[in-house]
Task: inverse folding
């Protein structure tokens, strides 16, 4: 379980990207963050993993506590898989090598310079097989299609043995058919393994079909929180204004002002 306590984010220039919010993400739930571009979805998602430092409030994780020290943040990140829109793979490295980077958080700086152990290679190959890419394990990542690269990203997250997965627009750059396959794969893995997932999407139909819960934002504030069955025309208008956005929703935002650093 992970929750936010009055978390807010203000960027330089006093632009409030995320207004104070109190949210609780229950174990095993597949939550979709929904909203127009710039609504604050990516800011909230990244605040859950310390990639954006809240300028107010704090994040608390069950079994770890308040994320107010470097040690607690590292412990949280170790068991949190991140999946990005642009894959964030090392193109010249093989699929296997990219997936093995998901284990780096479990080693000291010096240990990361040594080859992966046999057990970790086995773990990585099992993850690669699970996403249907075992025949591509020794192929360079930059030789894969966009959908295949995103499946490598899922395998890299899985090799961490995560209790939480945060996915920032994981299918926004894919064609509809490929996006369907990738999101279905991610949803199936999270459900079968009991992994808590928080996924930002801009596709309203995907949000309705795959989510246990939708948290929608508009202008940095939470304007809807509930099951897809409660998301009607009135709620959609509140989220998008004139109607659902059709463009990709990157929520690309500048570095926030920092009120402090982790000790």
Result:
């Amino acid at each position: 379980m992970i929750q936010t306590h009055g978390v807010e984010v203000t960027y330089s220039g006093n632009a409030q990207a995320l207004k104070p919010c109190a949210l609780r993400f229950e174990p095993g739930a597949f939550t979709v963050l929904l909203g127009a571009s710039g609504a604050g979805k990516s800011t909230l998602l990244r605040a859950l993993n310390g990639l954006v430092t809240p300028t107010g409030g704090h994040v608390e994780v069950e079994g770890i506590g308040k994320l107010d020290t470097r040690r607690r943040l590292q412990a949280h990140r170790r068991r949190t898989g991140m999946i990005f829109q642009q894959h964030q793979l090392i193109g010249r490295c093989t699929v296997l090598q990219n997936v093995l980077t998901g284990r780096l958080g479990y080693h000291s700086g010096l240990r990361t310079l040594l080859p992966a152990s046999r057990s970790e290679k086995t773990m990585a190959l099992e993850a690669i097989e699970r996403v249907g890419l075992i025949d591509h394990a020794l192929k360079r990542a930059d030789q894969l299609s966009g959908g295949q690269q995103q499946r490598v990203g899922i395998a890299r997250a899985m090799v961490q043995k995560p209790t939480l997965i945060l996915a920032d627009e994981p299918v926004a750059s894919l064609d509809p058919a490929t996006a369907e396959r990738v999101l279905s794969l991610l949803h199936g893995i999270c459900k079968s393994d009991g992994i808590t997932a928080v996924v930002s999407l801009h596709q309203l139909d995907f949000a309705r079909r795959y989510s246990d819960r939708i948290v929608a934002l508009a202008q940095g504030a939470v304007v809807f929180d509930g099951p897809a069955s409660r998301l009607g025309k009135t709620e959609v208008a509140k989220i998008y204004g004139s109607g659902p956005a059709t463009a990709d929703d990157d929520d690309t935002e500048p570095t926030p002002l920092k009120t402090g650093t982790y000790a």
Summary: The chain has a mean pLDDT of 88. Residues 88-161 form one domain. The longest helix spans residues 176-193. Helices lie at 41-47, 70-78, 95-100, 118-130, 146-158, 176-193, 204-210, 233-240.
